[in-house]
Amino acid sequence: MNILLQTLWLTTTILIRQLVYGDYDPLSYNCAESSYSYSLGGKFQANLNNTLSRLLDKASTSSFANITNGTGIDQVYGLYYCTRNIDHQACHSCVQAGAHKIVQLCKSLKEGILWYQDCTLRYANRSIFSLEEETPVYPYYNYTSNVSSYILDPYRDKFEITMEGLVNQASNDEGFATTLVNLSSGMSLRGFVQCTPDILGAPCYRCLSTALRLIDLWANTIVFLPSCLLRFDIYGSPSPINPIPQRHLSVGYIVLISLLSVIAVSFLLGGFWFWKCRPTSQGLLIKVTQAEASIQEPTERGRVHGLARFTYSQVEEMTNWFTRKLGEGGYGIVYYGCLSDASSREVAVKVLSKNDAPKQFSTEIDVFGRISHKNLVSLVGYCEEGTHLALIYEYMARGDLKVLLTDQTDSLCWKNRLYILIDISQGLDYLHNGCSPPIVHRDVKAANILLNQHLHAKVSDFGISKIFPSEYVSNLSTRVVGTPGYLDPQ
């Protein structure tokens, strides 16, 4: 009977915690599937558990901490940071939930990050301290209360001035700034920005500026990057963006807890009876095995790689029926486009048209499903509808490096050229040494290096790249492929 009461108490405690904290499901998470994996029960897992435990201890007294544990290939780097508008108790609760979730969501992978409203938690087998990283990024949209763009357009300048002021203030002070301003007699704007304390100054400014650029429409509430976050809320008429709901234990919840407790007791008593009258353990094992096997169903390509799938009509709409051509490659034409969702994000759409396009299409999706790096172009999604194949990438405003190098009216200074070379080398180093298994691009050239508006370079076009098992890297061979008359230096 004591065991039954203890179990009931534990069940009730869990139910209360889930109701108070909403089970602490993260707003989003990212597990670097291209990173190395670790063996369950091995040394890396032990170091990871130790790192998360030590981080949790620090969360009781500090809103930020970074810790490293172990050496060599089993070394773990971990950090968390909580928003500055919560107390240490709330910070500890958030990190505690994150430490529990991240090992489930990123099981066996050596790198992962998850975002909550109140905290960010990440770990990796590489140094992640004092880094200003633009990826992975997660924009949180409030879909429940859309704000009419035409109504808020008159206040857009004030909004931009306010948020840019917060970015400047945070980068010049302690990596944190917040404000509340009136947009009109009926509307107010609350802005909030924060960086991790290990990237203050210029890195903080660049991180928050990147987040600010991702706010294209007013429906965007929070933008999370690995080392910073930017948030705003609109209050008042018309059609306000409601703030993210806070956790409260209402009378309704208390009643619900009581009902769930009664149900829990019933289940426990029923379970006790079932245990006394249960069938053989072997029979149960067979049933459980069959049940587990039944859920191992193949998933579609996009879900496996975490990519959005678009219909061909959506591709036509986002490109305005292919009106603006950006360029033409070996396997298709690239068009400018904008997503039709609330973000209106600018994209580049490659429509594949060659006979061997399906092979290049599959290769790019397979590669992009494994990689995530600030110096590699991001794949937003794809279209695979009959004979229509298209790949949707992030838009790089300055185009490719080849055009920029040959354009006499917009010549690059040597300082910018050096930065571009560093960006390229970091992207290739990640492909060769940061991916497991390693990836060889096989067509590195100026035309496949794209630049954003700030001249940050990213490697693109993985249609003929090759994934090599790590045991063959020291003795790999590949035929000459790519651009005729040009040999990739890899």
UniProtKB/TrEMBL annotation:
Residues 1-22 form the signal peptide. The chain crosses the membrane at residues 251-275. Its EC number is 2.7.11.1. It catalyses: L-threonyl-[protein] + ATP = O-phospho-L-threonyl-[protein] + ADP + H(+); L-seryl-[protein] + ATP = O-phospho-L-seryl-[protein] + ADP + H(+). It comes from the Eukaryota. PROSITE patterns: GNK2 (PS51473), PROTEIN_KINASE_ATP (PS00107), PROTEIN_KINASE_DOM (PS50011), PROTEIN_KINASE_ST (PS00108). Keywords: ATP-binding, Glycoprotein, Kinase, Membrane, Nucleotide-binding, Repeat, Serine/threonine-protein kinase, Signal, Transferase, Transmembrane, Transmembrane helix. Residues 24-128, 137-237 form the Gnk2-homologous domain. Residues 320-490 form the Protein kinase domain. Belongs to the protein kinase superfamily. This is non-specific serine/threonine protein kinase. The lineage of its organism: Eukaryota, Viridiplantae, Streptophyta, Embryophyta, Tracheophyta.
